[in-house]
Amino acid sequence: MKNGVMMQYFEWNLPNDGNLWKQLKADARHLHEIGITAVWIPPAYKADEQQDEGYATYDLYDLGEFDQNNTIRTKYGTKQELKEAINELHKYQISVYLDAVMNHKAEGDYTERFMVKEVDPNDRTKDISDEFEIQAWTGYLFKGRGNKYSDFKWHWQHFSGVGFDDAKKRSGIFRVVGENKNWSSGVDSENGNYDFLLCNDLDLDHPEVVAELNRWGIWVSEELNLDGMRLDAIKHMKDTFIKQFLDAVRAKRGKKFYAVGEYWNGDLLTLNNYLEAVDNSVDLFDVPLHFNLYEASVKGKDYDMQNILNNSLSIVHPELGVTFVDNHDSQEGSSLQSQIQDWFKPSAYALIMLMKDGYPCVFYGDYYGITGKKSPHTEIIDSLLDIRRKYAYGEQINYFDHPATVGLVRMGDKDHSGSGLALLISNGEDGHKVMNVGKNRAGEVWYECTGDIKETVTIDADGNGNFLVDGKNLAVWIKK
Ligand code: CA
Q: What pLDDT, in 10s, does the model give residues 236-263?
């Protein structure tokens, strides 16, 4: 699975036409042919309304099967269509990772009354009200599903905070008060304690909640024959919960059951501490690298390219970092907007696909386009996928030694005949760099395989080549 390439198979602005699973099924063979080895699919269960992307989760057991919240299908289709898509992907040895939203639930079916204290949004450890009785949508009936798959019914006791007081029609952050009730430890320290994100926040210190989520994790993995999960919003979730959850699912599905967590924080130390707390049981998206790529794209030639891999999680933890350029949250108009500018995207993809460290993830929006508008990057991503599969092997030698033009060499290995490559990226003028590809390659003629440069390079007796790159572009050199 690793050394492969994951694709995030959705973007934020997909139409609510119930077609994604059908499209994915029809696309399985093509994905295999271009070199995709795993897909991350969006939250596939019933949300608060049909058009929701799935993150306003209502019923984790309703995968587009029951008439609930005025719809059977989800934004993406029905459970049957989802199963068919997964079967088809498996035919082509493509793994499937489901997006798992276990931090919160959207509003329930009826209100309940219980005691809370309002907290300061900027410091959730600070109460800003006395205890009072709230009326909140924390009761869940799942009328359409009944007790099928699980008879668990959620109540206020299963949440640690809510975001809306229905009695006063007022939003806020309201911490549930009672025996053993508090924000969880082991969450991000932003805002004092970042347990609460939105909606009804699940109490991961409640044994019934833990048991129910574990039961669901095992159920959904077996029901859909999943190969892994993408865990949403884990910086808002008790770290030890995640570890025991994965232990529970892997006990049934095998140790190789894959998991990558979304811990949206650009600070390497924070991510390191998290990995330590969960015994490296989960991969993390390389958010620090994403922010480097973003900064480089915004600053243009004023960015010092020697810093592009600084504090990257994948450099420190090559086996645990999932590298990506953009995703549904960073894309323009989304909650964590930090979209890499178009001129730099090909270089950003070249870096994550051809460097040794990290597990690259291609964003649907970058490959297929956003809001139905065709992406300008499809062709270069196809090329890079092909180059990755054929040439990106062996040791890596870095040449991050110039503010505008940086490069790296993959030396190739014995298992992949003819493998090895030289990558150059420039954010300024046309550039060139002498890089060593190994003495054993003396006399070889190399060419630039993305098609931008017509000259060839002959490797000298010491194994050096003087490789070229056009300004504000990338170049990948391989043996002719
Ligand atoms: Ca939480």
A: 999 999 999 999 999 999 999 999 999 9
Question: Has domain 105-202 been given CATH number 3.30.9.10?
Answer: no
pTM here is: 0.97
SS percent in the chain: helix, strand, coil, step 5: 30, 25, 45
Q: Which whole-number Å values give the CA distances from 405 to 167, 185, 196, 307, in the listed order? A: 61, 45, 43, 12
- Close Cβ partners of 49 (under 8 Å, ≥ 6 residues apart): 56, 69, 70, 71
Mean pLDDT of 271-287: 98
C-alpha of residue 237 to centroid of ligand 1, in Å: 5
CA distance 217 to 205: 17
- Ligand 1 centroid – CA 183 distance (Å): 8
Q: Find the 104 Cα to ligand 1 centroid distance in Å.
A: 7
* Token digits of residue 453: 């440069």
Whether 262 is catalytic is: yes
Query: Which part of the chain is CATH 2.60.40.1180?
Result: 396-479
pLDDT per residue as tens digits for the range 175-205: 999 999 999 999 999 999 999 999 999 999 9
User: According to the CATH classification, is domain 396-479 in 2.60.40.1180?
Assistant: yes
Give tens-digit pLDDT for 10-49: 999 999 999 999 999 999 999 999 999 999 999 999 999 9
Listed in order, the ranges of the chain carrying CATH 3.20.20.80 are 6-103+207-391
Tokens of 455: 């000259």
In the reported structure, the alpha carbon of residue 185 is separated from the centroid of ligand 1 by a whole-number distance in angstroms of 10
Active site residue 190: no
**6-103+207-391: what fold?**
TIM Barrel (3.20.20)
Residues around the ion ligand 1 (C-beta < 5 A): 103, 195, 201, 236
The residue from 232, 283, 286, 326 that is catalytic is: 232
Tell me the CA–centroid distance for residue 241 and ligand 1, in Å. Answer: 11
Q: Where are the domain boundaries for CATH 2.40.30.140 in the chain?
A: 105-202
